[in-house]
Write a structure and sequence with these properties.
The complex is a heterodimer of chains A (307) and B (289).
Chain A (H helix, E strand, L loop, with lengths): L12 H11 L2 H23 L4 E4 L2 E4 L3 E4 L1 H9 L6 H17 L3 H6 L3 H13 L12 H16 L9 H11 L4 H15 L3 H6 L1 H9 L5 E4 L11 H5 L6 H5 L19 H5 L6 E4 L10 H13 L1
Antiparallel strand pairs in A: 1-2, 2-3, 4-5
Helix pairs in contact in A: 2-8, 3-7, 6-9, 7-11, 8-9
Chain B lengths: L1 H39 L6 E2 L7 H7 L5 H5 L6 E2 L12 E4 L12 H5 L19 E4 L15 H5 L7 E8 L5 E8 L9 H5 L7 E4 L1 H4 L10 H8 L57
Antiparallel strand pairs in B: 1-3, 2-3, 4-7, 5-6
The chains are: A mainly alpha (307), B alpha+beta (289).
Chain lengths: 307, 289
């Protein structure tokens, strides 16, 4: 494929030419819409007096009857020695069930208000061509998660909530920022100058927790047409957790085309950026792979245009 | 076998090194985090927790900082502490009595809204709340203590005559007026802070303090003799000798002894001796009509 001269095109250029700008940014756009939606939902009350949803990402009440609670905060609470009341328990279980189904780290890519910050830092990181910097192991976040629970138990407090930028930024936007902008700036600079994809990809224990929640989740990305892959590496370039791609994309024969790593955030950027439409959303039981087939390859473009 | 064993050994060493590094890193980070949580436990003295809030240590284990209590407070009394600007642990609810006090709603909506139990649902009567205790911290500037009839703290108290009463004292300055001293009765005070907010002085003379600052505590073994006596209906210790009462005035010989005291007589007078010849150095002023 390199004979076609595609190798030196900028990341995603081929997809834009093939699918149009919207087609090559569909999931990115919808992800931003989703992130804005979950923020605006909470801002309707304080800004416009429409109190459909009260509270913040740590705990909320929708239409006066649907409680939603962050299960990581409840975990720390229990470690700290306080058993939550039924309302919070129900709220926590609903959230657990939802993310266990759609993928734990869907929280990271579709809801978390820090995600646009770190995505922005990464965009600038690429533009400025900065070295990747300090790269702690991907497993560091699980260690930090464990540490957070231990510190909660030892100090008898919900320890991570004292520094957690995720809930802090959300709470700040809904209730009052104080010096939280400073924290946002710190994370931006950390991701930009200290560690590429540092916060979400290596440090954040909230993401690590949701990884564990979605370890058997139903919704998965699959490299269905991996035989069509022309090795442009664009998916690796855009994926925030690109260690998850290879087992699915490079798998041969019977190997599952599903991205089964719980690190995958189901952000869908790989689907956007692939000119060959290798990836697609499916369920974890759908292991079918489209066989390399010349006939299929010929009919494929016409199908795409028909759709 | 030998070739298989070699990489295994390297793997083990690498595993142990990585584990040690992660453990050490987490120990450092965890200690820092623990230090910050300890720091966050220091609640400023002017910040009062909502009604029914657990003791501060338990509160920080239970409050998820969701702000539902803030949203359901009809008087905008409660606010969430903002990072770096307010004293309490960031994101936790509190109020400042001097700004907006607690209006003591009958249905206690903030407690009802709390999903975790950080505000204890066991509090069903707002009059039993203990958000703090009012203390007349500055008697020298309190208008009532100056002999004026301000009375504002007393009048606005939702628990008037129970939590604050006006006790009459003699006004030494004028010699013939009364001082209507506002006295807080901590058992009845809910710490709502209305007295502090309404105090007419530029800086309130009556302030709501956290209970730990506002109150002393009696020794566990202390008993108030007069209460015990009343409960028993008889002296607590039978056959106790009543010692002479000391009268006000100078000197140590001003005793109103049952038998009287005569200079030169033996220390233990005869039981038949019935007063006479006793002249105390202190005399009560004679009443003249």
């Amino acid at each position: 494929m390199s004979a076609k001269g595609k190798v030196h095109l900028p990341v995603g250029q081929e997809a834009i030419e093939e699918k149009g700008w919207y087609g090559a940014h569909k999931f990115l756009i919808w992800r931003r819409v989703s992130q804005a939606f979950f923020l605006i939902l909470f801002l309707l009350g304080p800004w416009f007096g429409i109190w459909w949803v009260q509270g913040n990402l740590a705990g909320s009440m929708t239409f006066g009857f649907l409680p939603l609670n962050d299960p990581l905060i409840l975990t720390q609470m229990m470690a700290a020695g306080h058993w939550p009341e039924t309302t919070a328990l129900i709220g926590g279980l609903i959230v657990l069930a939802a993310y266990a189904l759609v993928g734990g780290r869907v929280y990271c890519s579709w809801v978390c208000p820090i995600n646009p910050v770190t995505d922005g830092a990464h965009w600038l990181h690429d533009k400025l061509n900065i070295q990747k910097g300090w790269q702690p192991k991907r497993s560091a976040r699980y260690w930090i998660l464990g540490t957070v629970v231990v510190v909660s138990a030892v100090t008898g407090t919900i320890a991570w909530e004292i520094v957690n930028p995720v809930t802090m930024v959300h709470r700040g936007l809904v209730f009052g920022m104080g010096w939280i902008w400073g924290m946002v700036a710190a994370i931006f600079l950390f991701d930009l100058l200290v560690a590429r994809r540092g916060w979400c990809g290596h440090v954040c224990p909230v993401g690590a927790f949701y990884s564990l929640v979605g370890i058997r989740s139903l919704l998965r990305v699959s490299a269905v047409k991996r035989s069509e892959c022309d090795d442009c590496m664009d998916c690796y370039a855009v994926c925030p957790e690109n260690q998850v791609i290879s087992p699915a994309l490079r798998g041969k024969g019977e190997a599952s085309p599903l991205i089964l790593s719980p690190d995958c955030t189901n952000c869908g950027r790989c689907i956007d950026v692939c000119a060959m439409d290798v990836f697609t959303f499916t369920n974890r039981f759908d292991t079918h792979v489209e066989a390399p087939n010349d006939a299929a390859r010929v009919t494929e473009p016409s199908n795409r245009h028909a759709a | 076998m030998a070739t298989a064993a070699k990489p295994k050994k390297v793997d083990r060493r690498r595993f142990l090194t990585d584990t040690a590094r992660m453990t050490a890193g987490c120990a450092v980070a965890g200690s820092l985090l623990a230090y910050v949580t300890r720091d966050a436990k220091a609640l400023p003295d002017t910040a009062l927790r909502p009604p029914g809030a657990l003791a501060e240590d338990d509160f920080l284990a239970a409050c998820i900082r969701c702000g539902l209590c803030v949203r359901d407070c009809p008087y905008d009394t409660l606010v969430l502490a903002e990072l770096g600007q307010d004293g309490p642990a960031t994101g936790t609810p509190y109020f400042t009595a001097r700004d907006i006090p607690c209006e003591m709603c009958d249905d206690i909506p903030c407690v009802a809204a709390c999903p975790t139990g950080a505000l204890d649902k066991g509090l069903t009567n707002i009059e039993h709340a203990q958000m703090g205790t009012a203390v007349l911290v500055d008697q020298e500037n309190c208008l009532n203590y100056l002999g004026l009839r301000c009375d504002v703290c007393y009048r606005v108290c939702p628990m008037i005559d129970e939590a604050i009463s006006l006790d009459l004292l003699h006004n030494e300055r004028s010699g013939h007026h009364a001082i209507f001293a506002p006295i807080v009765h901590a058992e009845a005070c809910t710490g709502c802070g209305i007295c502090e907010q309404k105090c007419v002085l530029p800086e309130a003379a009556i302030k709501v303090l956290p209970v730990r600052l506002a109150r002393g505590a009696p020794g566990e073994h202390y008993r108030l003799g007069w209460e015990e006596k009343e409960a028993k209906g008889a002296p607590v210790v039978e056959g106790i000798i009543d010692l002479p009462d000391r009268l006000p005035g100078p000197g140590t010989d001003n005793l109103a002894a049952p038998g009287g005291f005569v200079d030169g007589l033996p220390a233990s007078p005869e039981s038949s001796f019935q007063g006479g010849g006793f002249e105390p150095t202190y005399k009560l002023p004679e009443v003249t009509r």
